[in-house]
Amino acid sequence: MSHPPSEHPHHIDVKEFHPRARAAIADPKIRQNFRRAMDGLISKRKDAFQGMDLDALRDLGANIRLRALANLPDLLEQLETKLTENGIKVHWAIDGDEACRIVRNICVARNAKTVIKGKSMVSEEMELNHYLEERGIEALESDLGEYIVQLADETPSHIIMPAIHKNTGEISELMHNKTGTDRSDDVEYLTASARQQLREKFMNADVGVSGVNFAVAETGTLCLVENEGNGRMTTTVPPCHIAVTGIEKVVGNLEDVVPLLALLTRSATGQHITTYFNMISGPRKPDELDGPEEVHLVLVDNGRSSIYQDDQLLDTLRCIRCGACMNHCPVYTRVGGHTYGTTYPGPIGKILMPHLIGLDEGQHLPTASSLCGACGEVCPVKIPIPDLLVRLRQESVDGDKLNPAKVPGHGAKRSTLEAMVWKGWSWMHARPGAYRFGTAVATRLRKLQPGQLGSWTKYRTAPKLAAKTLHERMKERGQ
Amino acid sequence: MSSRDIILQRLRNRSGGDLVVPERDFSVLQRPASSVAERIDQFQSTIESVHGEVHRCTRDSWITQLADILSSRGASSLLIPAKHEVGRALRESQQDGLPELLIYNEPIDSWQSHLFNEVDASITSTRGGIAETGSLILWPTPDEPRLMSLVPPIHIAILEASELYTSFHEAMLAQNWASGMPTNALLVSGPSKTADIEQTLAYGVHGPKELIILVIE
Question: Fewer Cβ close by (within 10 Å): the C or N end of chain A?
């Protein structure tokens, strides 16, 4: 079975956020699928942290991530040295294209025609499947959710549950059409069919590609968190394993992964731990009977070293990709993951993607939020997501002298009129006489206030000016 | 300049200057002391909640219990370690009702299809367990290779009750993992599962459909 290259990431115009959001909100099936799934995940997370000192654990998680970021260049070098000692080959890629080329070159050197993949968001970011398939190398997803999404020629709508936007009926129909399984709403049957199909693929794949949850510098260990076992298959059965990861995933000590793992699985799916926690520190040794002969790690920068430059934006790199922020996001739950049109949807996508695609392309992302703060409250490593959203909003209108804008595409939403209005506003508020005169005039002319105030009144009623200014009313009271 | 050097240079010459290196307070991971019996109870209830199966055994009874478990499943073959005590005990036992015993003593390349399609169950030792999360610690070896605990539909693991730790943190420190890791180390906490179809749990999606633990007390 071969899949046509997925062109979705290329097709989707991130800027078309609003039309997609309207369409998603109007679709009861999407809203039901997401509402039900997110409600389930929210309550499971809550149960999983029962009886734990969650705040102290989050503090520890945050400090571990901040500590790793503070030592990032040293840790990356230590990781490289350790992995090399262990027999794992390390590659560095400035961007997604370079990372794709590295993967392909490894495949070409091995004369590999088929690649089987474990779940990896970085490979989605690189659009690796598309790249490989255009060059005649089959890339098959093996995580059940990713497999379904690939059959449908779509992209994941959630970073942990890629096919959450589909219900059983839709999946059954899809598998029937693409793989010839019987139509059935029996999830066990559908799962067993996928197992059978994918086992054949595992046995014949030339290369396995996986992501990495934590890379431990001290021991040179790549950690993978999963439930299905496809990650273990991917990293064990094919003769060559290539792991791809963002440069921020490194931690100093093996001990660091303990609290991060506890936070990750509970935050993501409400599990105390996932079925498999897989720690890989080397290829098959001469006396071992299975495991890949070759293991590679591709360290992908793709904008991360730019994020790293700024003290506030740096917090974006703490993320351990649990997805709790999207599970708890009122906007995400209503519009679904595809509406964002980006590799990472939801709050984490809103603070990460502008760095990868620019604020011009991603100008709707920081504003697709009510700043309710839920994402920041549940983040296991305490990323102040709402603050970062506000920062990116400032960046998109170009910041000010004290805080010069840094994010690519900054200033994309700057309008001369709006800038003038705020300048006038600030001028007036700095001058009491002008302020009193201005508010007095405004109250007198309140009948002339327009009923529609641009996009503000699209879904809201316009605020009305009072008949008297605050000064006037206070004066009256005082008499 | 290589991509490596460009990336490292960008990180080293950070425009924001040096970052504060915060301290880590691991005390939140500390757990009160517990007895072996408490740990077994906790282990059992946690792993049963995720569809694992626990049988409490003694050194004399486990083979009989194993034979019952396997025959109730109709398993006709069992993959066992060649050298480990568990494998030796099985080969030397006169127990009735054990299925055909297979040994993983050739590189996977020569018998992959047989392992994937014909083997009903496997049994491995463990390096201990974790009560809090209901996890088994597996360090595959040449004697018990990686795929042994992954490919057959039933995975049976032998856990010595005395090697049950309270938490992952405790196990890692007690066994001094940081001093050197094997090519592959695993925590296994239940049978393979997925909830990718409408959040409905299904077992055995890629790995074993059943995980059965024989706790030797």
Answer: C
